[in-house]
């Protein structure tokens, strides 16, 4: 009897110790973990604050300083000089905005004329837009790359330029477009967002309702551009330089934003010959600037999406 009750007490004591031990562990371990995590959170918060400060400096570099700056370069640019520079810049921007905006656009390239067109544009320091088609040869690949390298806009004009294929169905239109967009990305790294329909958005050859296609472009984040000035080189045969110049610069008085349709194609030699005169005549006016198409450009469109 005596013996048994002693055993029981011992068992109870042991059990008590186990229970107390478990309770202690259940309190101490989570507390310890919480403290460690708390410390980690505080250190991460500090790190975030430091990074945010660094980012703010990066996003808002001191005015008039671009890129890497040092205290020295800030001291070298007194505040009043900076403001004068800003005012002048702003004034310049305003003047540019009130000028006629002329977008030279070249369709159907690259061709054997592309290099010469690019040389002329370079000589006059004019940026233009090239609505290109898909060509795989080495010369064409170099032409796409040169267009991009020299600051012009690489825009799309269908891969095949075959009306009966592109406009056969919505699916074939999309297939042709994607092929060109992906190909240009492959060879230049540019994901073009600008399009010109072969024949324009008001063409009458498409078997698909053009509004379906314009809606598709809009959904895909692609802006299409038609034209409101045609230099006249689309008609077959060699149009004279005189005519091309007159067609382009003759009606500028009534136009504030001019999208000039020109062609970059081997048989359109007079277009290349007329280009210097076209640029000079427009530059001589003094009230016009040449611009490449960008995301900010408001397009001229013959037909708008539903
Ligand atoms: Zn074309």
Topology:
Blueprint: H1 2-59, H2 71-75, H3 79-98, E1 100-107, H4 114-123, E2 129-132, H5 138-149, E3 153-156, H6 163-166, H7 170-188, E4 194-195, H8 210-219, E5 223-224, E6 229-230, H9 241-249, E7 257-263, H10 269-285, E8 288-290
Parallel strand pairs: 1-2, 1-7, 1-8, 2-3, 4-5, 6-7
Helix pairs in contact: 9-10
The structure holds zinc ion.
Zinc ion is lined by residues 107-108, 157, 161, 198.
Keyphrases for this structure?
306 residues; alpha/beta; TIM Barrel; six-stranded parallel β-sheet; two-stranded parallel ribbon; 8 strands; 54% helix; 10% strand; binds zinc ion
Radius of gyration: 34 Å
% residues in beta strands: 5-15%
Helix content: 40-55%
CATH architecture heading of one domain: Alpha-Beta Barrel
The H-level CATH homologous superfamily of one domain, spelled out, is Glycoside hydrolase/deacetylase
Structural class: alpha/beta
Biggest sheet descriptor: 6 strands, parallel
Helix-strand string: HHHEHEHEHHEHEEHEHE
**CATH fold node name of one domain:** TIM Barrel
* Count of strand segments: 8
Ends distance: 100 Å
Q: Which cofactors or ions or other ligands sit in this model? A: zinc ion
Mean pLDDT: 86
CATH class of one domain reads: Alpha Beta
What form results from the Cα inertia axes? Answer: elongated
* Number of H/I helices: 10
> Which segments are poorly predicted (pLDDT under 50) over 5 or more consecutive residues?
54-78
Could you walk me through the main structural features you see in this protein, from its secondary elements to its overall organization?
Residues 54-78 have low confidence and may be disordered. The longest helix is centred in the N-terminal third of the chain and has 58 residues, at 2-59. The termini are far apart. The relative contact order is 0.12. The protein is built from 10 helices and 8 strands. The strands form 2 sheets. Strands 1, 2, 3, 6, 7 and 8 form a 6-stranded parallel beta sheet that branches. The chain has helices at 2-59, 71-75, 79-98, 114-123, 138-149, 163-166, 170-188, 210-219, 241-249, 269-285, and strands at residues 100-107, 129-132, 153-156, 194-195, 223-224, 229-230, 257-263, 288-290. It is of the alpha/beta class and 306 residues long. Helix 9 (241-249) packs parallel to helix 10. The chain has a domain at 100-290: Alpha-Beta Barrel (TIM Barrel). Strand 1 (100-107), helix 4 (114-123) and strand 2 form a beta-alpha-beta unit. Bound molecules: zinc ion. Zinc ion binds at residues 107-108, 157, 161, 198.
